[in-house]
Structure formats: C-alpha cells, structure tokens
Design goal:
This protein is of the alpha/beta class. It folds into three domains: about 130 residues, Protein-Tyrosine Phosphatase, Chain A, CATH 3.90.190; about 240 residues, FAD/NAD(P)-binding domain (3-Layer(bba) Sandwich); about 150 residues, FAD/NAD(P)-binding domain. Helix content is about 25%, strand content about 20%. The chain has 14 helices and 27 strands. Strands 6, 7, 10, 11, 12, 13 and 24 form a seven-stranded mixed sheet that branches. Strands 1-2-5-3-4 form a five-stranded mixed sheet, sandwiched between helices. Strands 15-22-16-17-18 form a five-stranded parallel sheet, covered by helices on one side. Helix 7 links the parallel strand 6 and strand 7. Helix 3 packs across helix 4 and helix 7 runs parallel beside helix 13. The longest helix has 19 residues. It starts with a strand and ends in an 18-residue tail after the last helix. The relative contact order is 0.10.
C-alpha cells in the first residue's frame, strides 16, 4: 500500500484491495472512504467487495464516487461531512489518491489557510494547482474572477518592490505596472539597529505606503494567496485574479517567531527584545540603558536571515554603551550563534574579533535557540557541534536580544515558483526564473547565494528592471548581478566595519581605501550609515535614482 498522510486524521492512497483492509485496521485506521466509481477499470475491485472486507476488519466505510476531473462543490461538502461523521483516522482512496486529496483540499478551504492546504498536499505528493482558485475561494467554484491585467505585476512593496517599480518607470514610462501588497506602512528596516542603540527615533524609519508607490503604478492593497504561472495569473485573497505579461516576485521573507517555543508570549517583556521588529527596537535600548549587571544574550539562528550581521550589531552597540558607562565589567556578554563562524566573509573577521575581545564577549557557536521561558528568564539552545551528538543547554539571562528564524513566506514555499527549499528559483546572474521565462525575483525571497540586505536589493532592482525591459523589446538579458551585498557592521557608536562583498565572498568596495577601508572600523562608514544612507533610501532608491547601482551591461560578443 502506498499510504500518504495528509493530516493526523486523514491519509490517502491509490487503489486499495479487499486484502488491504486487515492491515489498515492493524495500523490504526477506523474508516475507509472510496472515491473511485465502480467499473472505472476492468481490474479494480467493486466497492461492495472492499466494504465487505472492511467490515470483517472492523472498519466503517463510505462510498463517495467521483468521476476523474469532475469534483463538484457538493462532492467536497459531502467529503467534509464524512470526515466529521466517520471515526478517525480515515483512509480515502481512488485510482491514484489525487481525487481524495482534492476533495480534502476543497472541504477544508473555508477553515484553513490556502498555503497550509497546499503544503499538506504537496508534502503528500499531490499537486493542487488545478484547483488553487477554488481553494482560495473557500472551496467553491468562482463565478466571477474579475480579472485585471497589467504589463508587469510586482508582488511585494518593500524595498525591492518599490525600487524595481521606480526603475522600470524610469526606463519605460508607458508600462502598466501593479504592485500587490496589503501593508499600510513601509519600513526602513536597516534603521532598526540604530533605533535599538538609541541613535535613530523609530518614527523616522516608517512612512505610509501610499506616499512611496511610484507615480503611475497601481497599488492593489491585497495579499497574494497563490500563483498560476502557467496561466500568467496571481490569485489574491478573496479569489480575485490579476493577470500579467511579466511577473516580479519580491515579498521579502517571513520572521518565524513561533519556531522558538515560548518566544511569542514573552517578546517585549521579561528582558526579551529584538531589533527585527519595529515596535521592539526601542525596547532594546530601554533594556540596554537599564542593565547594570548580569548576563546579556544575543542570538543568531541558522542561515539564511536578512542582514546576517544584525545579530552581532546589536551585541556590539549594547556592549559599547555599557563600556562607555563602565558597566561592562559587571555584564557577561554572550553571542549564541547557530552557525560556526562569526561572519561569512573571512576578510572582515579580524576587525570584528578585536571588538569581541574589547567587550570580552563569549562566542558560543553551534547554539540554536529553541525555547524561552520568559518569567524564569531562561533560554534553551540545541547545540549541534560537528561530529558530536546534539545536546540541549539551558542558560539564564537578564537581557536577551533574539533574532528569529526566517523562511520564505508560506504562499511562496508552496508555489510552483519555489525550489525544494522554498525560495524562488532564479538564475543567480540574470535573476530570471529558471522555469518561467516571464518571471523574475529579487530581494530576500529568491535563492541566489547572496546576502539578504537592503543594499543587495538596491543593486538588484535596476538589474531586474533592465532585463525586464530588454525582454519586452525582444532582447536577451542586458545586465548581470554579481552578488553584491553590503553589511555596515556597527562595532561601536561612531565606527563601522563596512562589509561589501559579492558571490563567493569576493570583496566589492564602493569607495577607495583612503576614504573607507571596509576591513577596518572607520568613522566615515558610520557617517555613511547615519547621515547618507537613509536619504539615499527614501529619495533615490525608492524613486528610481540608481546611486552607485547602475547595472553593468553584458558585453556584446
């Protein structure tokens, strides 16, 4: 038997035989649903034969025959009712299991998120792309899709989405462009490290979304539920359908706070904070100011995460504050890193290690935060050192800055656009999708092996815009991405190690060494971070002004 688990209470399988019933009972199943009509093939047993064997094995049965490819809304309702009425766990079968999986998907659509349904069926080996609109529509067949159509549809209005829309408009003003995003507020997230250090006010990092959408670009304030790339369609919540000639996917990533047991219930209190959230970054500075002695933990989850240097930036700036107030001798600073290195590009590590020594910080590698007890002020880590058995350790703390695990958004991970790990699957040079020629991606959600930073998106936006316009004109890609990313490592208040690098850790400095030597802490880099980059973000990057980001053209051969 090829049993595929959909939930704890439902499994599906290809055609079952009467002889299978006793084994199903042994495995703990209590009911069987047949979704295959009798006589569909000459070699299949009748339902009566299966039912008789099931009865002998103590199983209940239900016959809900479905003609292949013709699952009606009523069929889905009947299936859902059967799941309620029959004792579970339930086994459902048809010729391949697809009809049974489809019935479950539609029957649950009014109660579960589309992404959860698609993830469950995908994990069982069933593709629900053919009924995704019905799933999004609560399991019902849509009667009016109300299609809108644009030359370019952009999913996500973060740094990458608005920047690429502005760059497209600069190159081809007549394009009809839509941006899909349900958010009301746009955040300058690179500023939150500075908020957590008391340098920036949080309010300066937020603007209304409507004030930033480029002129002439349609903003559709809705979340994406699913993609139909074979039909050039994006399905929105409520089953509205937006069609496109070309699609650009850049919704950012998902901060998976729930992946750490107990974390959500204690964030913002009990000394637990994170600069990865707008409302918590000010609390970071409150904790730093208030801590006079004890243990301060700073965590970093497994890669990938956005701004891989941000977890240690919080540590350096906090320790610098305590150092200046002569409190550091009474504070145990510990960096709990799920990985095995301080920073992924070795050229910057010596300068960073000088500050680790200055602040007498303890580096705990291979420590991944898995649970938090806020009232008890304890954190539990899974320690997975190479060539050793994993173990768990629990550490007490007085303050903890948490960087949450990060994954692609649910609707991306279950889509046809994703690779096996859940990220949008692109060519790392052109940022064009590997399977769909009219789809591109940039920012944190795609799978090119670059740092996930706003600086990377600043460089990627004109490259994608250039290549989309070239495609519209019938040309091959005109621009190539070299993996550029930048991470201004705030090692103390007033100095930054400006890490700039590309694929393979290649150093890609934007400035001459006499101005900013990126492998050393400099005041010039701090001035850049504090005074120059915020207005560049708001007034250049998001408006299509490509300061230090003009794409290099592919040389003609």
């Amino acid at each position: 038997m090829d049993i595929r688990n959909i939930t704890d209470q439902l499994s599906v399988a290809p055609q079952l035989q009467p002889a299978d019933m006793a084994e199903l009972a042994k495995q703990g199943f209590r009911s069987v649903i047949c979704n295959r009509p009798d006589g569909e093939a000459s070699d299949q047993p009748t339902f009566d034969e299966v039912a008789a064997a099931a009865k002998d094995a103590g199983l209940e049965t239900r016959y809900l025959p479905i003609v292949s490819g013709k699952v009606s809304d009523q069929d889905a309702e009947d299936f859902g009712r059967a799941l309620v009425e029959l004792p579970g766990p339930v086994m459902a079968y048809c010729r391949t299991g697809t009809r049974s999986a489809t019935l479950w998907s539609l029957s649950q659509a009014s109660e579960k998120e589309p992404s959860a349904i698609l993830a469950a069926t995908q994990a069982a080996g069933y593709d629900m792309a053919g009924v995704v609109r019905r799933i999004v529509n609560g399991g019902k067949t849509p009667t009016n899709t109300g299609d809108a159509k644009f030359d370019v549809v952009i999913v996500g209005a973060g740094a990458a989405g608005i920047a690429v829309a502005a760059s497209l408009k600069e190159r081809k003003p007549g394009l009809s462009i839509a941006i899909l995003d349900p958010a009301d507020i746009h955040y300058y997230q690179p500023g939150w490290t500075m908020v957590g250090a008391g340098v920036f006010d949080a309010a300066t990092t937020a603007k209304t979304m409507g004030s930033l959408i480029p002129k002439g670009v349609r903003w559709i304030k809705s979340a994406v539920a699913a993609f139909e790339p074979d039909d050039n369609a994006v399905i929105l919540d409520g089953c509205r359908v937006v069609k496109y000639d070309r699609l650009i996917v850049c919704p950012g990533l998902k901060l998976d706070w729930h992946a750490v047991d107990g974390l959500v219930d204690t964030l913002g209190k009990n000394g637990i904070t994170s600069n990865y959230r707008y409302d918590l970054a000010p609390y970071t500075f409150e904790l730093v100011k208030g801590l006079r002695e004890g243990r301060a933990l700073f965590t970093q989850p497994p890669m990938p995460i956005k701004c891989a240097g941000a977890p240690q930036k919080a540590m350096y700036l906090s320790a610098d504050h305590w150092h200046r107030l002569n409190r550091l001798k009474n504070i145990d600073v510990e960096f709990m890193n799920a990985g095995g290195v301080l920073f992924g590009v070795k050229d910057y590590v010596p300068a960073l290690m000088e500050y680790v020594k200055k602040y007498d910080a303890t580096l705990n590698f291979w420590h991944n935060l898995i649970a938090v007890d806020g009232p008890a002020k304890t954190a539990t880590f899974r320690v997975s050192e190479p060539e050793q058995e994993p173990r768990e350790v629990t550490v007490e703390f007085d303050m903890m800055h948490v960087t949450p695990p990060q994954v692609a958004p649910d609707f991306i991970r279950v889509s046809p656009l994703a690779d096996a790990a859940g990220w949008v699957d692109v060519d790392q040079n052109t940022l064009r999708h590997k399977s769909y020629d009219n789809v591109w991606s940039l920012g944190d959600v795609m799978n090119a092996p670059n740092a996930k930073t706003a600086a990377a998106a600043r460089m990627q936006a004109p490259i994608v815009a250039e290549n989309v316009v070239a495609d519209i004109r019938g040309s091959n890609p005109k621009a190539m991405y070299n993996g550029y990313g930048s991470c201004p490592l705030t090692v103390e208040k007033g100095k930054i190690v400006l890490a700039e690098f590309g694929y393979g850790g290649t150093l890609l400095p934007s400035f001459p060494k006499w101005l900013i030597n990126g492998t050393k802490p400099t005041r010039a880099a701090w001035f850049l971070k504090e005074q120059i980059l915020p207005p560049v973000y708001w007034k250049a990057m998001l408006r299509g002004k490509e300061w230090l980001a003009k794409p290099e053209k592919v040389s003609a051969k």
